[in-house]
Write a structure and sequence with these properties.
Layout: H1 2-6, H2 25-41, H3 44-71, H4 87-90, H5 93-97, H6 104-128, H7 141-154, H8 173-187, H9 191-215, H10 228-236, H11 238-241, H12 249-269
């Protein structure tokens, strides 16, 4: 709640830190009151299912975000933009068998195929397979093959490391397995849990549309496209993003105006 209020997504009063105890008292008090009311009104299994649903969805999106951050950070790149492959893939039979594999469009398609394969596999396990007959398990072959094929090809791509960003070992297996496991666990929840989740999701989106869009502080980042982090990302992958950042005309102007001043200072010192 404190993080959301600090970003302006919810009411900023929840982010006010008390000077005496150095904690956001209003946010803590509001959270305690809401939790107490929910505990009094609903049963424990209802609350447990809601917590499980929210936690699994959050972890699933964390896996997706991690992959996008390390592989598909620049979504505005055209499909023909090159990406780096690992040494065993670039020099092996994989690059020869799949022409044009080192392109952004292949990376997007494979990741989308993996996500659809996860949903397909989870749906097959929860809806189609209800008995113990062996022939029912044959329905797992298509989504299983889609997951294996797309996941194996995704391991051929090399993630880019941004200076100053946190380390993330085990790419891309860690985010892909996180998405797969959480989607499978989500498929085991009841229909009522999904209905409740979408109701809460609707209320959250309504809150964001009516308040968060206007007061969010994240929109100020869009006003500075050439920030230090974006520059570090561009410099770390010149083969993907393009040439190194060049000096702007404004910077050249400042540079030319500063040279006479430096000469005057040197003459005054001598």
């Amino acid at each position: 709640m404190y993080a959301l209020a600090s970003d302006g997504v919810i009411f900023g009063a929840f982010a006010n830190v008390n000077e005496r105890v150095q904690v956001p008292l209003l946010g803590l008090a509001f959270g305690a009151v809401v939790s107490s009311v929910l505990a009094l009104l609903f049963r424990l299994n209802f609350l447990a299912e809601m917590v499980s649903m929210g936690t699994l969805v959050s972890y699933c999106f964390i896996g997706v975000d991690l992959f996008v951050l390390r592989y598909l950070h620049f979504a505005e790149l055209p499909g023909d933009s090159p990406v780096q492959l690992r040494a065993w893939a670039a020099n092996g039979f994989l690059a020869r068998c799949v022409p044009g594999l080192a392109r952004v469009r292949w990376l997007r398609r494979l990741f989308l195929a993996f996500l659809l394969g996860c949903v397909w596999l989870a749906t097959t396990l929860s809806v189609i397979i209800k008995g113990t007959q062996l022939w029912r398990w044959a329905f797992l072959a298509p989504p299983g093959l889609a997951l294996i094929f797309s996941g194996a090809l995704l391991t051929a791509f090399k993630p880019y490391d941004v200076p100053g960003m946190y380390m993330s070992p085990g790419l891309p297996l860690a985010p892909l397995l996180a998405v797969l496991i959480n989607v499978l666990l989500l498929s085991r929840l009841s229909i009522r849990s999904w209905i409740r989740f979408f109701c809460w999701l609707f209320l959250g989106l309504l809150m964001y549309i009516l308040y968060g869009v206007k007061h969010s502080k994240a929109k100020s980042v869009d006003d500075y496209p050439d920030s230090n982090q974006d520059k570090a990302v561009k410099d770390s992958r010149p083969d993907v993003i393009g040439d190194q950042l060049a000096d702007t005309p404004a910077a050249d102007k400042d540079k030319t105006t500063s040279e006479p001043e430096n000469e005057e200072k040197k003459q005054s010192e001598t």
